[in-house]
Amino acid sequence: MLSFVLILLLTTTAFQNSLAVEGETQDMSYTLKMRVTYSNPLNGTRVWNLTEEERTIGLFMNNTWQTAYLINYSYPLEMMKDDEDGNPIAVLRFPKESARLNPGENVSYTLVYRFLSKPRSIPEIMEEKSENLDDIPKDLREKYCSEEGAWLVKDAELQELAYSIAKNETRVLTIVKKLVAWIHQNITYTVHEVPMYPNETYAERGGDCDDKAVLFVTLCRIYKIPAYIQVGCIYLPTSNRTSQTYWEEHVTSVLNHIGWHGWAIAYVPPWGWLPVDLTYVKAGLSDPLNAIKAGAVTLQETIQYSNITQNDYVASSRETREFITDNDFYVDMEDEMSLEPFPEPQKPPEPPLDEIQEKPNLIPVLIVTAAVGVTLTGASMIVFVLYVWKTKKAKLRE
Questions:
Q1: Contact criterion met (CB below 8 Å) for 171 and 131
Q2: How many independent structural domains does the chain possess?
Q3: Looking at the structure, do residues 11 and 83 belong to the same domain, yes or no?
Q4: Within a domain: residue 78?
Q5: Enclosing domain of residue 50
Q6: pTM beyond cutoff 0.90
Q7: CA–CA dist 13, 261 (Å, integer)
Q8: Same domain, 85 and 210
Q9: Sign for the pseudo-dihedral over CA of 320, 323, 324, 326
Q10: CA–CA dist 50, 100 (Å, integer)
Q11: Which pLDDT tens digit goes with each residue over 30-69?
């Protein structure tokens, strides 16, 4: 949970600017290197016993748009499992002496991921082809429309807001369009060090990428439209290396060619699950449907990290901040993303060492045989040429 919360902290990066990136037509390959250091300062008064939560790492997701690999890690993996939202995670096995940080001690780990990202497209969506609320499958309503986590579906003020925006509309895509337009026009982009609940975002009339997404998801769920949020990273080749501190300077983040972002996912029949981006849209939101057609996740530079469907990550973030600051612990993070050449097809695996020792290696034998054959052939050709030359010389004498 700690690593997850720290990544969510970085979604406060201002991604409200529009993009002007053309879609790719071939697979792309990216590498992400992450380094995390937990520190207990020399003047500290408490011991930091690192729990399983501090040793848990995310593994990113695999789907039709991307394939993720964890190719290097500092410590062995103790276990691999799914979290409560179904995201793949792993737990690192720290040495005993590193799992307990006394004042003046620290521990670091490094992770290296490789991503293969495919070209992406969104189905052609039009309001007149949208199906209605009654066409949404019942099982999806039950799973993704309840009040859980950060989704305050039963909040009376938010219910009144939802119904005032969409009124008696029944077409799902039209409702989504109206919700996007209202949030774009009424919720300004403001940065917070911890996520906010949707009623707080509404009251303040401001929030960052995931705050707006949480408000949107809540309004969707009030209308019985299945929705949740998703978090991911974006490769930013032209961005400069940045360093920022958070949580009363107890957390330091260094980002190099990478940004973290959050957006919504909503079920819109007949097209199914569609991404809805409230802040990072390359075509702008003058047309609210661009939130679906041109959001960050439609770009190959964006790698999907995890889904948040029921976890109350707002409460978790605030608890983590309180734990870090009250105990005077420190966390340093550094993320670097790079574009890599697309990998060549893998070579067949080498035979085991014992098999090489037990069986004769035919490759050197073939090489020697070929060399001998070439030598003999070359000698024969020389003898033949000399014979022809002498014969011709003799005839010339005659």
A1: yes
A2: 2
A3: yes
A4: yes
A5: 2-340
A6: no
A7: 8
A8: yes
A9: positive
A10: 6
A11: 999 999 999 999 998 999 999 999 999 999 999 999 999 9
